[in-house]
Amino acid sequence: MISPSPLSDSDISVHFTKGEDRADTVEIVVIVPTFKRPQHLLATLKTVLNQSTKRSYAVVIMDNDAHSAEGAAAAAGLLSKHDLPSTVILAHRRGNCAAYNAGIHTALTTYPNVRWIQIIDDDELAHRDWLDLQAAAAQETNADFVGAPQHPVFEEEGDQIWSSHPVFEPPYKNSGVVPILFSSGNVLISASLLKRYQHPWLDESYNFLGGGDSDFYSRCKQQGATFAWCHEAGVEETTPTRRTQLSWLNSRSLRNGSISALIQKKAAQTPFDDFRRIGKSLLLLAVSPYRSLILFVNKRSLIMALNPMNVALGRVLMEFGFANEQYKSADKN
Taking a C-beta distance cutoff of 8 angstroms, is the pair 239, 290 a contact? Predict the structure, then answer.
């Protein structure tokens, strides 16, 4: 269930702010959630500050580790040396969705004329045309959401072969209007859409499960939101070696399946919706061996070929209440 409680002063505290006199001129606000990765955050932030755009933009950093606040301190130190309007907050509610909600709230209330909110994670690097490409795609398609790829950059050079694993591949390969998005790690969102919703935008019950972004997209689509993809605006995502291990890859596939079923279960309004969803889960499980075989032929990798079966199994386990907490809570990091 989505918590109806609004954000209060106890949920957000401002650690640093600059450029308040130009707040009403800001067109785009880049929000960056962070948790215990100050060095990663600084690398991300430097690429955000290095944009070649002529558009007026600001930065909001949400440190979800309010106790040590290392990310907030690091970000404030760097932002203090630049002229860009910026705000660094401590998001006291723990969890990924809570941090996003705090950032969205801060962006909308601090920069009243903002047109778009751009999200980038603290382990991603953007190229110089990133903001311009995303904004141009939003203008061209008039979409409420514009997603873009998160290209994995692996710690070990030999691990690059895993970039074609389904859990790392982008959902679309061509720019343009798309049915829906799946990740919040690199997405531009219309501020007018966000202003039509009340806090919380992301359901905080997904804080440690993952999938709060997909759930938000699903709810917005039900109310007529539109989506687009800008393949040229990809970011580079730092990918640790442990994400190439079989246990992590299997857990991620199982988790993706369970989240997919959970979101559809939440959206069900009639018993027929439940019946159709369960039937889909069982059908996907039945055909998953054939899909895995096709993937094996194409990829020549048994580990990659396991993905369709794991996704289908994750759906069925969630349907019947046997979801394993180990993979339900498998995180991104």
Answer: no
- Interval 101-138: pLDDT, tens: 999 999 999 999 999 999 999 999 999 999 999 999 99
Specify if 7 maps to a domain.
no
Expressed as residue numbers, the domain containing 21 is: 12-244
What ranges make up the beta strands (E) of 111-229?
116-120, 124-126, 145-147, 150-154, 176-178, 186-190, 227-229
pTM score of the predicted model:
0.90
Domain final residue, candidates 216, 244, 272: 244
Q: Domain total for the chain? A: 2
2 is a domain residue = no
Burial class (CB in 10 A: 0-12, 13-18, 19+), 55: middle
What mean pLDDT is predicted for residues 12-16?
95
Residue 332: DSSP 8-state:
-
Residue for token digits 């994400």? 243
- Shared-domain flag, residues 311 and 199: no
Residue 197 lies in a domain: yes
Rounded to whole angstroms, the Cα distance separating 93 from 321 reads: 28
223 domain residue, yes or no = yes
What is the helix (H) or strand (E) element at residue 32, kind and residue range? Answer: strand 28-34
Other Cβ atoms within 10 Å of 78 Cβ, number: 17
Task: Summarize the confidence of residues 65-93 as an average pLDDT.
Answer: 96
Name the nearest CA neighbour of 175 among 120, 133, 236: 133
Percentage of the residues of the chain whose pLDDT score is greater than 70: 94
